Amino acid sequence: MRIKLFLLLVVMTALMSSAFSQSEATLTLQTDSIKQTISKNIYGMFSEHLGRDIYDGFWVGRNSSIPNKDGIRLDIVKALKAINVPLMRWPGGCFADQYHWMDGIGPKDKRPQTVNSTWGGVTENNNFGTHEFMELCDLIGCQAYVAGNVGSGTVKEMSQWVEYLNSPLKGSITQLRKENGRDKPWHVPFWGVGNESWGCGGNMTPEEYVDFYRRYATFCHDYPGAHLNKIASGPNGDDTHWMDVLMKNIPHDLMWGVSVHYYTIPTGNWAHKGSATKFAEDEYFGTLKRALEMSKVIEDEEAVMDKYDPEKKVAMGVDEWGVWTDVEPGTNPAFLYQQNSLRDALAAASTLNIFNNHSDRVRMGNLAQTVNVLQSLVLTKGPKMLLTPTYYVFDMYKVHQDAKLIPVELSSPDYVSGSEHLPAVNASASKDSTGAIHVSLVNIDPSKTITIRTSFKGTKWNTVNGNILTSENFNDYNSFENPVKIKVAIFSNVRKENDELLVSLPPKSLVVLELK
Ligand code: AHR
């Protein structure tokens, strides 16, 4: 009897202490070890000639009744400008390696009708080409990142595209640009040399790709006033062999960076990825688990890069990432149109925390994709436009752009699902040029509020305010019927206790705090 009572007490004590520890996290902000800058380019976007991203997305044409500037939809421009989109990658994706840029310049009625064989075999009327893309970037106020065609193009074609966009020198290519209405070069800073050359970009071996890269990179060069940051087509996820061959064989002065692509598939099964809005907790957990694996992908690839480039001169650009679900029922499977829930916002916020915390190597990121495709910021239906929960993440996190990273030390309780567990909380922090500190916190646990006690090494602060993004259910989303179901709200469950910060972070929420 005594033994039984003793065992019961032991079990109860264990349960009580685990219940207690499960709701508390501690965070230390190393404000005394601020070094690197979080590049604003981590907050970049990706837009491809795919489904309704460009056509019936950004591009509605001049004759549309939807307000536009030279055919470019202005409500989308306004929304992207408001979140300081710093960079836009275009025209693909897989489409980049089938795109011939000369099809998309000159009078629209003379442009050829081609077939987008990558994405559904639809007719590509080439109405949106180089000039339209550059105008879009100008309107948004972002930099351009152009992906060149290595798979089905030539060195000459890509080098002439660079000349067309960047050269101030006299020649027939720049003359052509002038005849098409643009006198001055645009100075496009970022150039991708192919896309997924291990797959849709040519099914190459890394050794073959290296040979291509060296030739392309040699002939795509700087022009006066226009330095080219060339980006090699990097690995699929944590294929470290691909990275190893590139880092070993491409002279580092020939490349600004190497790309990495990593998508979060909710079920982990490409054949049945899972619905964007109808899922239970096991799939919610699986999605967050796979999104958090981004940190392993980055660390594995970074270890290879460090071996050849310990000074971290070559950047890693995660130029395609995001949650990829099944398409919305009844839509063209080749158009990759999906809804976007609170779960996806939590995945995006966690990913951006990972990027911030690895910003010594990760100096570019491009969410796939911006409008009506995959994990979009914006969805459109005729004249209607809505902002997804992921849009609000980029809005809340814009404070980290070009701010100084504050390294964080975090001890988090677990979010347990069945026999699996994940850290419930993730975080990143930065200090901006005015001295304000921003802390972004994510609680992926769908049912537990977590108290976070934060201490600061080497800094004092007086005031705190913040914003929160959450909703009743993790699969809630903004629809055309209810476009503001999920939106940013003021967060006040936070207080100062001596020099510490106490935050009560609700289940399935993300919060960004500003301390001054
Ligand atoms: O973003 C959709 C596709 O995913 C891109 O075209 C390709 O690069 C990747 O496989």
What's the main sheet like?
8 strands, parallel, barrel
Structural class: alpha/beta
What Rg is obtained from the alpha carbons, in whole angstroms? 24 Å
What hetero molecules are bound to the protein chains? alpha-L-arabinofuranose
The total count of helices amounts to 11
Helix content: 25-40%
Question: How far is the first residue's CA from the last residue's CA?
Answer: 59 Å
Shape: globular
Catalogue the unreliable spans: 5-22
Residue fraction in strands: 25-35%
Q: Please tally the β strands and state the result.
A: 27
The strand order across the widest sheet is: 2-5-8-9-10-11-12-13
Average pLDDT over all residues:
95
In short:
The chain has helices at residues 2-21, 74-82, 130-140, 155-166, 172-179, 206-219, 240-249, 281-292, 294-308, 342-357, 389-397, and strands at 24-29, 44-46, 68-69, 72-73, 87-90, 114-116, 122-124, 143-148, 190-193, 229-232, 257-264, 315-323, 362-368, 378-381, 384-387, 404-406, 408-411, 414-417, 420-423, 425-431, 437-443, 450-456, 464-469, 489-491, 494-497, 500-505, 509-515. The protein has 516 residues and is of the alpha/beta class.
Polypeptide structure, described:
This protein is of the alpha/beta class and 516 residues long. Helix content is 26%, strand content 25%. It has helices spanning 2-21, 74-82, 130-140, 155-166, 172-179, 206-219, 240-249, 281-292, 294-308, 342-357, 389-397, and strands spanning 24-29, 44-46, 68-69, 72-73, 87-90, 114-116, 122-124, 143-148, 190-193, 229-232, 257-264, 315-323, 362-368, 378-381, 384-387, 404-406, 408-411, 414-417, 420-423, 425-431, 437-443, 450-456, 464-469, 489-491, 494-497, 500-505, 509-515. The strands form 7 sheets. It has an 8-stranded parallel β-barrel with strand order 2-5-8-9-10-11-12-13, surrounded by 5 helices. Strands 16-20-21-27-23-24 form a 6-stranded antiparallel sheet, covered by helices on one side. A 5-stranded mixed sheet has the order 17-1-22-26-25, with no helix packed on it. The longest helix is centred in the N-terminal third of the chain and has 20 residues, at 2-21. The chain is globular and about 70 Å long. The termini are far apart. 50% of the residues are buried. Alpha-L-arabinofuranose binds at residues 48, 92-94, 195-196, 320, 368-369, 374.
